[in-house]
């Protein structure tokens, strides 16, 4: 019991740029944030990598704030670790699978209405409602509409 409490406390102190997530009903699908350069168009300073172990494919996204709608989104981009990577133009540019919705919550499932920032606290749960449709229609990688849970730092 004490070990479980210690594990929960260590995850509660996890930084978003060190966090690892696992899709609740498909643990072969994982997600993690990686630091990227900050620009006026992409102020988050993070990119999200979603990896599908069965196919070996990874998808990259840049978080963006929906403004007055209080909705958060992820813009599909190319591999941020690739040599010469440049962020896409917010008005277009290379978006391999398009934009998807992004919902982050704390451990009590209260919605976090902000894009993640390097060094900030890691959300306990992430939900990308249209991830499965986007990846299926582009490469036949499917993902159930389910939460990603914080699995480690």
What does this structure look like?
- The protein is of the alpha+beta class and 153 residues long.
- 13% of the residues lie in helices and 33% in strands.
- An eight-stranded antiparallel β-barrel has the order 1-2-3-4-5-6-8-9.
- A hairpin with a 4-residue loop joins β3 (46-52) and β4 (57-65).
- The model is unreliable at 1-10 (pLDDT under 50).
Task: Annotate the secondary structure layout.
Blueprint: H1 2-12, E1 20-23, E2 29-35, E3 46-52, E4 57-65, E5 72-77, E6 99-105, E7 111-112, E8 125-127, H2 131-139, E9 148-152
Proportion in helices: 10-25%
| Multimeric organization | single chain
Order of helices and strands: HEEEEEEEEHE
Q: Termini distance?
A: 21 Å
Percent in strands:
25-35%
Note the overall shape. Answer: globular
Number of helices: 2
Poorly predicted residue ranges: 1-10
Biggest sheet, in brief? 8 strands, antiparallel, barrel
Spatial ordering of strands, largest sheet: 1-2-3-4-5-6-8-9
C-alpha Rg, in Å? 15 Å
What would the average pLDDT be, to the nearest integer? 87
How many β strands by DSSP? 9
Structural class: alpha+beta
């Amino acid at each position: 019991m004490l070990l479980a409490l210690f594990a929960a406390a260590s995850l509660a102190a996890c930084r978003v740029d060190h966090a690892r997530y696992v899709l609740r009903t498909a643990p072969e699908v994982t997600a993690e944030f990686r630091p990227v350069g900050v620009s006026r168009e992409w102020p988050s300073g993070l990119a999200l990598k979603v990896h599908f172990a069965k196919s070996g494919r990874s998808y990259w996204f840049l978080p963006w704030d929906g403004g007055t709608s209080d909705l958060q989104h992820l813009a599909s981009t190319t591999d941020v670790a690739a040599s010469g990577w440049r962020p896409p133009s917010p008005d277009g540019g290379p978006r391999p699978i398009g934009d998807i919705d992004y919902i982050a919550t704390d451990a009590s499932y209260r919605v976090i209405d902000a894009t993640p920032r390097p060094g900030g606290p890691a959300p306990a749960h992430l939900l990308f409602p249209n991830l499965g449709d986007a990846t299926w229609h582009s490469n036949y990688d499917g993902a159930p509409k389910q939460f990603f849970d914080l699995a480690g730092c």
